[in-house]
Write a structure and sequence with these properties.
Strand order of the largest sheet of chain A: 1-2-3-5-4
Distance between the termini of chain B: 32 Å
Largest interface: A-B, 32 and 34 residues
Radius of gyration of chain A: 64 Å
Number of helices of chain A: 9
Number of strands of chain B: 5
Distance between the termini of chain A: 82 Å
Oligomer: heterodimer
Shape of chain B: globular
Helix content of chain A: over 70%
Largest sheet of chain A: 5 strands, mixed
Radius of gyration of chain B: 15 Å
Structural class of chain B: alpha/beta
Chain lengths: 461, 168
């Protein structure tokens, strides 16, 4: 299954190009529209200024005539104002058309006409003041100049209007293009967005599907691991029990068959010895050698049997057996042993588990702990009624309980033994703080203690 | 599981070629001994050896706790000496020992154990045993003790005929 993100690498560049095109079109139409607006304003201004010029000149003419007729100096004031107004109007026109190169010749002509007209009026006024007035009705080139001036301004206005129309056409083309472009690009961008959304939706779905697959595989594995672990645990328990059974059987066989044979052989030797009488000293010597060898065989068999299964456990009870175990350990190792053993009711298999755990703990601490003191307690669990607690504590080196231990299998074995009996085992240790092994096992319900009772009572004496 | 006197004498009969033939009346005056031992090999050898070397007559035996108790609790069953093995096929010799010491304190109780450790010895003596012998290393001592005990017992209660002829 392909990743959808990789299927079309052109979507993003295309979207970028489209966006740039949109910006370009939009910008160009903006500038074109603002040009057109400026032109429109210029035309209006032009019209107003042309009119102003015409009126100012006409007004100047009127006041010049009035002065010529009246020769009153008061009439010169409005003339001066009208003259100033016409100069300002001319300057305004020049200002408005300053950017229009095509209008420059007409503007120059207009300016020349205006100046000439104003000079004419000025000289007419000057002559009148000098007293040699012309005939006010004759030889006035005013109307011709004014007509020419009006024609000029109309031409300029027409030119500007024509210019504006062409600008408007191009503007409307640009706006149309802009509209189409915006619509088209919007459609394109919308399509791209939909495509993108669909793809990311598909991507999310694919991702979710993959996650589901991974989770399913993970769950299957978890179940398998749990199954395997349970199988291994069962197998380990089975092996431990089977080993204990096998040891038991071996010990019994050795005890019953080998031990009996050797003892019987010794009995026979005793009979032979009595039959021999005192007659044959060499035969006596041989017989003594034979008995020695028999004793050696008996001692060996006994050591093996005792190692396989503590015979005292089933006959003297747990407390005595543990006492013997620790006493022998103390004699062997020199470690000081403190025991606090109370009377407890346990099944034989639970007793064997406790014995094995204590044996393992003692073996471990004699191998690794460097301890000088060991405390062993056995009794009803103080905080769990109906349970028996055993603790083995030493003051040795201890170890990091979280780190993999040297005696990991021994510890595991102890734990499995305890769990197989329905109990639990806990080991606490810190480097330099010694080690504490605790085992809890369910006590045996009262009433089934018949065979063990005399041994237990005897253990107290 | 208990063998009565009849079957015991039958066993003795098999042993007759090894043991010197003894007059019936003399056998009657031997020290009556009951044996609690589960191993047939040891039992046969022990019976043969004791009867061969000491003035002891094995009047019966048991291989487990229950049958031993059943025989011993019967007051009609006479036995002066009871030899008990601690480790039995079923049950424990310690219980036999305890019961026997309670019921008939006059009986001499001897323990013959495979693991006569200090603890076992103390336990047995505390329960009423007179002596404790290790099955493997103290067989000779047991034989000596039985011989000694039988002679002193018969001296204390002399039979019609002298019993010192039975000594090897």
């Amino acid at each position: 299954m392909s990743l959808p993100g990789n299927s079309n690498p052109f979507v993003l560049p295309m979207a970028a190009v489209a966006a740039l095109a949109l910006i370009f079109i939009s910008e160009s139409s903006y500038w074109q529209s603002s040009d057109a607006l400026l032109q429109l304003r210029n035309i209006q201004q032009l019209g107003a200024q042309s009119e102003q010029l015409e009126q100012a000149l006409t007004s100047a003419e009127t006041h010049e005539r009035a002065f010529r007729l009246s020769a009153l100096p008061a009439d010169l004031l409005p003339y001066a104002a009208a003259r100033r107004g016409s100069v300002e109007a001319m300057d305004g026109l020049a200002q408005t058309l300053r950017k229009d190169k095509a209008a420059a010749p007409r503007l120059a002509e207009l300016r020349a006409l205006t100046q000439r007209r104003l000079l004419d009026l000025d000289s007419a006024i000057a002559r009148r003041r000098a007293g040699r007035d012309d005939d006010p009705t004759s030889t006035d080139p005013g109307p011709a100049d004014m007509a020419r001036l009006r024609a000029l301004t109309r031409i300029m206005l027409d030119e500007q209007t024509a210019d504006r129309d062409s600008t408007n056409r191009s503007l409307s083309r640009t706006l149309l293009l802009n509209r189409l472009g915006v619509a088209l690009l919007s459609v394109v961008l919308l399509a791209a967005l939909m495509l993108y959304l669909r793809k990311s939706d598909g991507l999310a779905r694919t991702l979710a599907a993959q996650q589901r697959l991974v989770k399913a595989a993970h769950d299957r594995l978890e179940v398998q691991v749990a199954q395997r672990t349970a199988e291994l645990t069962d197998l380990t328990r089975h092996l431990l029990i089977a080993r204990e059974d096998e040891r038991n059987r071996l010990a019994r066989n050795l005890h019953d068959d080998l031990g009996s044979l050797l003892t019987a052989a010794k009995l026979d030797a005793a009979r032979v010895k009595s039959r021999l009488g005192t007659a044959q000293p060499e035969a006596h010597q041989r017989l003594a050698d034979l008995v020695d060898k028999l004793n050696g065989g008996i001692a060996l068999g006994r050591a093996i049997i005792e190692d396989l299964r503590p015979s005292t456990l089933s006959h003297l009870g747990l407390a005595t057996t543990l006492t013997i175990l620790l006493r022998e350990f103390a004699e062997r190792s020199g470690v000081q042993v403190h025991t606090d053993l109370q009377l407890v009711q346990l099944t034989p298999s639970a007793e064997l588990v406790i014995f094995r755990v204590v044996q393992e703990a003692v073996t471990n601490l004699s191998k690794y702990a460097n301890a000088s003191q060991v405390w062993l307690t056995l009794g009803p669990a103080p905080d769990r009624p109906g349970w028996v607690a055993v603790t083995v504590r030493d003051n040795g080196d201890g170890f990091d309980a979280d780190a993999p231990t040297r005696s990991a299998y021994g510890l595991l074995g102890m734990r499995f033994r305890a769990e197989a009996e329905g109990g639990s085992l806990q080991m606490r240790s810190q480097p330099g703080q010694g080690t504490l092994v605790s085992v809890w096992l369910p006590a045996r319900p009262d009433g089934s203690a018949a065979t063990e009772a005399p041994c237990a009572t005897a253990a107290d004496t | 599981m208990t063998l009565t006197l009849a079957s015991c004498t039958g066993m003795r009969h098999c042993d007759d070629d090894a043991a010197p033939a003894q007059p019936q009346n003399q056998a009657m005056q031997r020290l009556k001994t009951y044996l609690v031992e589960d191993s047939p090999v040891i039992r046969d050898s022990l019976i043969a050896t004791l009867q061969d070397l000491t003035p002891v007559q094995v009047v019966g035996f048991a291989v487990d706790e229950r049958s031993a108790l059943r025989w011993l609790e019967n007051p009609e069953h006479e036995a002066d000496l009871v030899i008990v093995d601690i480790f039995l096929k079923a049950g424990s010799g310690l219980i036999v020992l305890q019961a026997c010491a309670l019921w008939q304190p006059r009986r001499t109780l001897v323990v013959l154990s495979n693991y006569a450790t200090v603890d076992i010895r103390q336990r047995c003596l505390a329960l009423g045993a007179d002596r404790v012998f290790d099955k493997s290393t103290e067989i000779e001592a047991l034989i000596d003790y039985c011989g000694q005990h039988a002679r002193t017992a018969t001296l204390r209660h002399p039979p019609a005929n002298g019993s010192d002829q039975a000594a090897p």
